[in-house]
Amino acid sequence: MRTLLITGPGGTGRTTLAAATALKAARQGTRTLLLGTDRDDTLGAVLGVRTGPAPTTVEPGLTAWRPDAAQSFRETLAALQDRAASALDLLGASRLETEELTPLPGADDLALLRALREAALAEAHDLLVVDLPPAPRALALLAAPEELRRSLRRLLPPERQAARALRPVLGRLAGVPMPTEALYEAAARWDLELAATEAVLADRNTTVRLVAEPGPAGADAVLVTTLGLALRGLRTDLLVANRVLPEDVPADSRFGGLLAQQRKTLEGWRETHDVHAVAHLGRDPRGTDDLTALDVPGVDPAASPVEWPVTDRLAGDGVLVWHIPLPGAVREQLDLVRRGDELVVAAGPFRRTLPLPSALRRCSVDGAALRDGTLAVRFAPDPGQWPRER
């Protein structure tokens, strides 16, 4: 399945263009599922039909689905109470009724990740279009599966789970309580679910499409968002410039200054992105007729993989170089820390812990440079670990 994630600054018509893109694909014969993320039915308002927890057929070939985060939270907590029933009874704790449960902060994001995984793994559709939240929240959401898995593995390393069968003996010998079997099972289940979501995001058929309104604020937001996506290794296929004014707007009209700002921003964007401009309709699009009138781009059948190559310069310079694309990064806002077999990269407001390629784990960091939007990290072989030539 092809997965298209659509995000951008808030208030730029992100939901509208996601709906228009899904509608266009469906009318071209692609079985399309449109996944909404807002609690309010903004997606339904754009499509002209109500959407909700039950998948809704908008028209042949197009289905819209807006998961209920509150219901998902209640079901998850109810299942947790069922699994912990014996412990709750032992403690004399009373069970919470599902009707009295209120979703905790972050429940929406967890529900969306689960829905994304389920929708991407289903076989009923050929294309999944996801109307992600605004860019700052979307970036945190897309980072969650990897970061949660990493934290989970630090707390309960898989190699230590080999001692599960010896847990009762170790508990008696050590004189301290040991993790219960249920904890290991829960950790394994969470790791499996997070890995499935991470695989969807890392799949070569998953891409991100940015939507922004050309102007100074939009330019700043696109710059930051592009950097955050690049650090996560996510593919961006297009930057859609929305609500572009027509070129025949008189320069002395009240929209003349806005048109000049849009032109300047579009020129800058075209130097760094594949840009598709969508004209302003002069009104807020509502219903499938308005969505059809929007000249949205189609969806390519395949995506180019993101490459972070390691260059062998041992013969000439005695180093290996790892190239990490970071468009929009500023040298003064970059930071690198080597920690074991990982490299912690901080770029602007973003941070990611990267596992080193196998060849680089036997090397030490020898320096780094940022040129033309690519971070080149040099690694010198560690004589104590590097194979010796005979």
What features would you describe in this structure?
- The chain folds into two domains: 258 residues, Rossmann fold, CATH 3.40.50; 72 residues, Immunoglobulin-like.
- The chain starts with a strand and ends in a 9-residue tail after the last strand.
- The strands form three sheets. It has an eight-stranded mixed β-sheet, sandwiched between helices. The chain has a four-stranded antiparallel β-sheet with strand order 9-10-15-14, with no helix packed on it.
- The protein is built from eleven helices and 15 strands.
- The model has no long low-confidence stretch (mean pLDDT 85).
- The chain is globular, with a radius of gyration of 25 Å.
- The protein is α/β, with parallel strands linked by helices.
Please compute the radius of gyration using only Cα atoms: 25 Å
Helical segment count? 11
CATH architecture descriptor text of the largest domain: 3-Layer(aba) Sandwich
* CATH homology group of the largest domain: P-loop containing nucleotide triphosphate hydrolases
Stretches with pLDDT under 50, minimum 5 residues: none
In which order are the strands of the major sheet placed?
3-4-2-5-1-6-7-8
Task: Please report the first level of CATH classification, the CATH class of the largest domain.
Answer: Alpha Beta
Note the run of SSEs as H and E.
Answer: EHEHEEHHHEHHHEHEHEHEEEEEEE
Structural class by sheet pairing and helices: alpha/beta
Q: What is the beta-strand fraction?
A: 15-25%
Q: Average pLDDT, to the nearest integer?
A: 85
Shape: globular
Give the biggest beta sheet.
8 strands, mixed
Report the end-to-end length measured between terminal Cα atoms.
50 Å
